[in-house]
Design goal:
The complex is a heterodimer of chains A (about 300) and B (about 700). Chain A is elongated, with a radius of gyration of 22 Å. By secondary structure, chain A is α/β, with parallel strands linked by helices. Chain A is built from ten helices and ten strands. In chain B, the strands form nine sheets. Chain B has a nine-stranded mixed beta sheet with strand order 19-18-20-21-28-27-26-23-24, sandwiched between helices. Chain B contains 17 helices and 38 strands. The longest helix of chain B is centred in the first third of the chain and has 30 residues, at about 45-75. Chain B is an alpha/beta fold. In chain B, about 25% of the residues lie in helices and about 30% in strands. The chains are: A alpha/beta (about 300), B alpha/beta (about 700). Strand 8 of chain A pairs parallel with strand 2 of chain B, so a sheet runs across the interface.
Chain lengths: ~300, ~700
């Protein structure tokens, strides 16, 4: 019988059909592995004292501290600072790609989103979903109730990656939709279509980075889960191959082994550019591929959350 | 280049097949969906170009493979200038033999010359009877004439080693010249040599290449290497006495250089024989390529000629001729020296340095010195003295100078020392300048002390002093000297450290061949005087002064012309006392008495002999009195024949036109190499090797391209 932590591996988790169970297995497996981690009991953890100001609830006054200092202090808990989260799902056709016939990038993102939603609801954080391709196609208002999880999982299960993407427009739209300061978790492969008009990485990435900058500009915290297929991350092709784009009719005939080094260098440059820009705007950037366990993603989320609140 | 099966070369047309396949049936690439295609696009141009290059490379390799197959089947061969001629037709053949002494080296039972003769026999036996054959001996190539193969066999058999043989260049040139005149179409030259250093004179390469190009219809050149690749030899490379001619009562040292080539060490001994008597022996331990110099000392030699030899004894290795070195030594009567001086006190230092009173009393002086007054100068005759010194003579007259001039022309040596008494005008007359190398201009007393230094350290007058102590002259302080005006043909032997000439020389002999003496002028005199009147410290430096005076006197006496040890191959030049015709002399040597083949040059008392034929001792006698030797001499084989340094293949081939010569190692390779040289070289194996290489490259590249995904 599989241990809970085994469910962090995509290959095993794929055998679980129900998305709610998948999310649960991921989170439980993850929490079981934490042991004495800094996240233990995170939802109601005492954070700090602050001076009492008129209007504060008297129940929150720390009388022990008053006895020692003759001053009124109010106990503050992390649970007080609930984070509103949005899971921004990329619906572009390229997300439906898998070479290994296991998880597509989209399925991987669905599992990850479900697990994050499960974790956030468990923390009593309100969480919602937006799904976009060229514009926002589906959205679900954030709530912290347990029934919200069912709604989220229901929506996620219905989503299909089909269209072309316009990340810039979609992120702009999300930025204007979400009024309050929230945590926006973007799950995307951030790949431009092969027929993009740009001639360089810089030009192709400009819309993506503009979109992310816009979110940060509106005061939102951003975590970018950059999810690639294992084949995109490792380029295991050999021999002469004709590569076809999935969002455009573009094709390219190449000697795969000969081009591998050039591709890997380009990919590293591409990812580095996004990471640098995210770092500059204090957004978190997590690079994943479909062969990686989910705990890296969850850990990134929790570290990010603990650092911010 | 030509083909054995030219029709098969048409198969090269099949090379179009891969081109057609390449153009029509291009490899269908596997289809791969790939969302990150955009990332591939960034480097698309470079990557696509690389792909195209690889495609074309693959196509090229495939075309090349088919071309090579067709070419290999057509059996191409590289042909020589004479290929295509009927190999059974009569040929004009020149057989060039290196007969230098290094060909004496034995491999097994045969000498290198015997191996060469055997190889030549095999060539001659295969030649059609109508062929014309030249047999050229490197030592004497001018006497070769075309003969039939049967006669050539006898000539080859009669070939012998010749110590006078040098390089084969002359023989090759002579052979090519004669082949030019042959009317036969097929011309071949075989050069039999051990390829030892000296077998070819590389400076003559241009002449050989030129001569080859002038042979109509071309000539097949083949070098047959009959030498040992790793020769072993122990040899006396040189044995040099201090001087060939020494004054009586001298001590003579014989410097003997011995060397060993091979592996391990050589143990033996050296024996010195003089006039047939064993006079000394020394053990010898030699390591490979580390020559050692042994020294024998000979004392109390009587006047006259002495002949001797140094023998190297021990295990018999390598060449035999270089185990003995012959030498001749002349012990002359003491040099006769006249010192002309106004005052006995002036001449005292020089006279004592040349003939110390103690040695004179014992009768062991090297020079006999007479001190004479300046007024007697005009009466001195050539032949009365060997050397004449004018020591601070005040004012020699024109008659005095005429007498001195006559003395010099008669072969005497004159040394003029300028001092306090000298009146410069008397040394600048035309009569004086006919003899002197320089005229005095003015006396100089430098503010700072100056010293002497050798301008030419190898000059015979200072060489020994310089070898004994290079600083000796530099320690001599000079307080005063005459500034000299040198003549155009004067040579500076010594100079002062301020750069002014101190000792100048002028010789009336040219290249040591014409009889005539030498005159020197020294700007400061060797006169012992109180410190305030002193010109220099030379007399106060006894050892330096004695060696300097002795060597200067010997040099002026013309000892250098009295040379008795010669190398075979060089003309022997003897300074003879009479003006007899060369025909009146006979040379008595190891091979008996032979008339002298030589000449007396210009009636000036110089006898030039052609080189002695073999190593050993010789006596020059008069026709009418063969029992008494007029002169004696020794001849040895050139040391390079003992050193056995082989020329590299590249050095030898560079002597001939490009691809114009073939090298065969010994008799084993001779027939196959000769065949190849005549008919050309088959390229089939090379093409096959290339084909395999092309296939391997094609496979490797194709596998890289189309490996399974």
């Amino acid at each position: 019988m599989a241990k809970p932590s085994d469910y962090l591996k995509p290959s095993l988790l794929r055998q679980v059909a129900r998305l709610d169970l998948r999310a649960r297995f991921i989170v439980e497996g993850f929490l079981a592995g934490l042991h004495r981690s800094p996240f233990h009991g995170f939802s109601v953890e005492f954070s700090e004292h602050r001076r009492y100001v008129p209007g504060d609830d008297l129940k929150m006054i720390d009388w022990n501290l008053f006895a020692r200092t003759d001053r009124f202090y109010v106990k503050q808990f992390q649970a007080e600072t609930n984070v509103t989260g949005f899971l921004a799902m990329d619906l572009s056709a390229s997300m439906g790609y898998t070479r290994s016939q296991e998880f597509t990038k989209f399925e991987y993102c669905i599992c990850l989103a479900a697990a994050l939603a499960y974790l956030m609801i468990r923390q009593q954080d309100p969480v919602g979903v937006v799904a976009f391709d060229e514009k926002v196609r589906h959205s679900l208002e954030p709530h912290a109730q347990r029934k919200q999880l069912g709604a989220i999982l229901g929506l996620l299960a219905r989503l299909q990656p089909t269209g072309r993407t316009d990340i810039r427009a979609s992120l702009d739209q999300i930025a204007s939709m979400v009024r309050h300061r929230s945590l926006i978790i973007v799950l995307s492969d951030l790949l431009p279509p092969a027929d993009s008009p740009g001639e360089s990485i810089e030009q192709d990435l400009e819309p993506v980075l503009d979109g992310l900058r816009h979110l940060r500009h509106r005061g939102h915290d951003v975590i970018v889960f950059h999810v690639l297929d294992q084949a995109e991350a490792e380029f295991p092709f050999e021999g002469i191959a004709e590569f076809e784009d999935v969002e455009s009719p573009e094709r390219l005939v190449l000697d795969a082994r000969g081009v591998k080094q050039a591709y890997m260098e380009t990919l590293a440059e591409y990812c580095d550019r996004i990471r640098q820009e995210c770092f500059r705007w204090r957004a978190d950037y997590v690079r994943l591929h479909t062969g990686m366990p989910f705990d890296k993603a969850l850990t990134s989320y929790l570290v990010s959350r603990s650092q911010r609140f | 280049m030509e083909f054995l099966h030219p029709a098969l070369a048409a198969g090269a047309a099949l090379a179009v097949i891969p081109i057609i396949i390449h153009l029509i049936l291009r490899e269908k690439p596997r289809r791969e969906k790939f969302p990150a295609l955009r990332l591939l696009r960034y480097r698309q141009r470079t990557v696509t170009r690389r792909l195209q290059v690889r495609h074309w490379l693959l196509l090229l390799l495939r075309v090349l493979a088919i071309l090579l197959i067709a070419l290999a089947l057509a059996r191409p061969r590289i042909t020589t200038a004479t290929a295509g001629l009927d190999t059974r037709a009569p040929a004009a053949v020149a057989l060039v033999f290196d007969t230098s002494m290094s060909m004496q080296y034995r491999t097994g039972d045969n000498t290198a010359l015997a191996v060469a003769q055997q190889a030549a026999r095999s060539i001659l036996e295969e030649l059609p009877d109508e062929s014309e054959v030249l047999v050229l001996d490197a030592a004497n190539p001018e006497v070769a004439l075309f003969m039939r193969p049967v006669e050539a066999l006898d000539r080859v058999e009669s070939l012998q080693l010749n110590p006078a043989a040098t390089s084969v260049n002359r023989a090759i040139l002579e052979g090519l010249e004669q082949l030019r005149s042959s009317t036969l179409d097929r011309k071949e030259m075989y050069i039999f040599t051990d390829l030892m250093n000296g077998a070819f004179d590389t400076a003559g390469a241009e002449a050989i290449r030129d001569a080859v190009s002038r042979v109509p219809g071309g000539v097949t050149l083949l070098i047959v290497d009959v030498g040992a690749e790793r020769p072993v030899n122990a040899a006396i490379e040189e044995c040099r006495p201090t001087s060939d001619s020494v004054p009586a009562n001298s001590t003579v040292s014989l410097r003997t250089r011995v060397a060993y080539r091979g592996e391990g060490t050589f143990s033996g001994r050296l024996e010195l024989y003089l006039d047939g008597q064993l006079r000394g022996q020394q053990p010898v331990e030699l390591r490979a390529d580390r020559p050692i110099e042994h020294r024998f000392v000979l004392r109390s030699l009587s006047s006259g000629f002495h002949q001797g030899e140094v023998r190297l004894l021990g295990p018999a290795v390598g060449l035999a001729f270089d185990d003995t070195w012959y030498f001749t030594l002349e012990v002359r009567e003491p040099t006769r020296v006249a010192v002309v001086a106004h005052d006995e006190q002036d001449s005292l230092a020089l006279a004592q340095a040349l003939a110390p009173a103690e040695l004179v009393r014992l009768g062991k002086e090297r020079h006999r010195v007479d001190v004479i007054a300046p007024r007697r100068l005009r009466s001195i005759r050539a032949g009365e003295y060997d050397v004449l010194y004018l020591l601070d003579v005040a004012a020699p007259t024109a008659d005095d100078w005429l007498a001195v001039g006559s003395f010099v022309r008669g072969g005497g040596g004159v040394g003029v020392f300028l001092g306090t008494r000298v009146q410069a005008a008397n040394y600048a007359t035309s009569e004086a300048l006919a003899v002197l190398p320089a005229a005095p201009k003015a006396q100089v007393e430098p503010d700072e002390p100056v010293h002497l230094e050798a301008a030419v350290a190898a000059h015979p007058a200072v060489r020994l002093l310089h070898e004994w102590d290079p600083q000796a002259l530099g320690r001599v302080v000079v307080y005063r000297y005459w500034l000299l005006q040198p003549q155009e043909d004067a040579e500076v032997v010594l100079r002062f450290t301020d750069g002014q000439p101190a000792l100048l020389e002028r010789s009336s002999a040219s290249e040591g061949r014409r009889r005539g003496g030498t005159a020197v002028v020294m700007a400061t005199p060797p006169i012992a005087a109180p410190i305030l009147e002193r010109w220099n410290d030379l007399p106060q430096s006894p050892a330096t002064f004695v060696i300097f005076a002795d060597q200067l006197t010997l040099h002026l006496a013309g000892v250098a012309l009295r040379r008795w040890n010669w190398t075979i191959g060089e003309d022997v030049v003897l300074s003879v006392r009479s003006r007899r015709s060369a025909r009146m002399y006979r040379l008595v040597g190891p091979e008996g008495t032979v008339p002298i083949s030589g000449r007396v040059e210009g009636g000036q008392g110089v006898l030039v002999l052609n080189t002695p034929p073999v190593a050993g001792h010789y006596k020059v006698v008069l026709e009418r009195n063969e029992q008494t030797a007029e002169y004696e001499l020794s001849a040895n084989v050139h040391r390079r024949e003992s050193q056995l340094d082989r020329l590299s293949e590249g050095q030898v081939i560079a002597m001939f036109p490009e691809d114009g010569v073939t090298l065969a190692r010994g008799t084993e390779e001779l027939s196959s190499v000769a065949e190849r040289a005549r008919v050309g070289r088959e390229l089939f194996p090379y093409l096959l090797g290339l084909l395999v290489l092309v296939f391997a490259c094609e496979q490797w590249l194709a596998n890289r391209f189309y490996s399974a995904v």
